[in-house]
Structure formats: C-alpha cells, structure tokens
Amino acid sequence: MPNLSAAARRRRAERREQATRFAVPRPLANTRLAELLPRNGMVYGLLKERSGDEKVARVIKTSWASALEVPVGTLSLTKSIVDKALASIFAAATELTEEMIKSDEMNENTETMVFLNKLKFRVGTVPVVVPGGGASMGVGAWARALPSEMFYKIFMILRASRRYWYENPRQPMAVEEHCALARNIDRFFDVDMLNWGDFAMVQWVTRGGLGDVGVGLEAAQDEEAVDILVEEEEEEDVEGSGNAMEIDASDVSPKLLTGDEVKEMLARVCVDVDQAVLEAAFDKLHL
C-alpha cells in the first residue's frame, strides 16, 4: 500500500466516519426510490409500471458510495441524498443551458434530445443549490449509468411535477422551504428556452417513450408511494455524443401512439405541441 500523506489519511478517515453514520443493515435491493422522493414543492405523477424504481435507487447509491470511496453496503439512502441526486440533474441543466446560450449553440431550434444527451453526462459535475443557502456537489455522476430512455423520462416527469405544484400549490407555500430539487428546477426554468414539443420529442413520445404517465394526480393519490420509472435496457451512449435521436421508420414498434394520444401524453408532462410538428413527425414515421 502506498504511503499516504497526513491530509490524505485525514480525508479517508472523514469519509469512513460519514459512511458509518448512515450505515444500516437494510439490503440495497430493497431500497425504493418512491419512498424517498422529496415532496416540498413537488406534485408527483404515477407510472403504473414499477420495475425501474429500485434500479434508479441502486444507481444513486452506488454513485454516492463511489464519491465517498466507501463500500456501497455501508450506506443507506435518505431523502436528503435522493433530493440532491435529482436536483443535480437541473443544476447541470441550468449550467449547460447558460453555456450553450453563450456559445450560440442554444436557440429556439435546438433539439431537445441533443440537449438531454449532453445533459446526461453533465449530471453530478455542478454544485446543487440546497435549502437554507449554500451548495453541495450531490452524489456524483450517477445519471451516466442509466439507460438514456430512462434518463429522458426522469427529466420530463420531474420537470412536470414542479409545474404541477405551481398549478396546484400545497404546503409549504414558501419557496424557501421547498426541496433542493424544486429550487434547482426553478433556476432551470429561468434560463430554459427550448421547445419541449419539438420534432425529436414528438417522435420519442410517439413510440412510447414516456410509458404510462399520469402527472398531477389528486392529493389523496399523490400521498401514496409512487414509482416514477420503468426499466428499459439499452446500450450505453458514447459520452458526449450529443447526437439527435432518429427513429428508423422501417423498424418501429407496432405500439406507436396516435396523434391524439401523443398530444394527451405531452399535455400530461406540461408540453404543448404544434399540429404541424405532430404531422411532420408522423410523416417521418410513415403513419
């Protein structure tokens, strides 16, 4: 073992001490993200499928352990950690948007999927604004380990869940008391200029990208534990590719949505779509 400096030994001891404070005997596989979602300032939707919930929790926990340089089995997820992990998506989205605007890469014609592909590899690299002031680096670059389709879905559902709070606010009303996730989404809203109902997004939703989504449910339903994801396997993206997502019309799923279903699905995640864009996407798919 190489000799460590006093400072390095001290940092390692501090990381181990932090890990010990959170250690519990609960197995990793039993962790459900739905039980730990930050609530203040958010109104969540519901996906009927359940299998992706534990996968996302495992990815976040593994990334956190890696950032602390401790065994994953010594940690247990908390609401605070999940809050920071999800907030890190929008902290990165805000910085990425500002950079793209400054470099003239961002305008109203920038494709949403180009942005989301870039964003996936930026999550965890930007400090997260936390309640009470200050910032945190979160739990590491956890989003890179997710299939892109799952990451797109997380982003769209969380984005919509904050908008639904504004449409149907509930206690606590003071934004200062809202979770880190809500406050970082607000910062992203301040700079966002993308058209979320663009051609690429419509194509993705048409082929079932959002799954079975119901956002902005009644308060009684919203209090239930919810699963916000479905598990979908795919090959890992090449880091930083940022390529627009295209759908091969010769190899599309037989379960494509109709035009009305696409509009309804996008409305549920607070996205308006122009009829001309919808028709162009369906022409591309030869529907």
Task: Walk me through the structure.
With 287 residues, the protein is an all-alpha fold. The chain has one domain. Helix content is 45%, strand content 3%. A two-stranded antiparallel sheet has the order 1-4. Strands 2-3 form a two-stranded antiparallel sheet. The chain is globular and about 65 Å long. Residues 20-30, 215-228 and 230-254 have low confidence and may be disordered.
In brief:
With 287 residues, the protein is an all-alpha fold. The chain has helices spanning 6-21, 52-68, 79-102, 112-120, 148-167, 180-191, 199-206, 219-222, 259-268, 275-284, and strands spanning 46-47, 128-129, 135-136, 213-214. The protein contains ten helices and four strands; from the N terminus they run H-E-H-H-H-E-E-H-H-H-E-H-H-H.
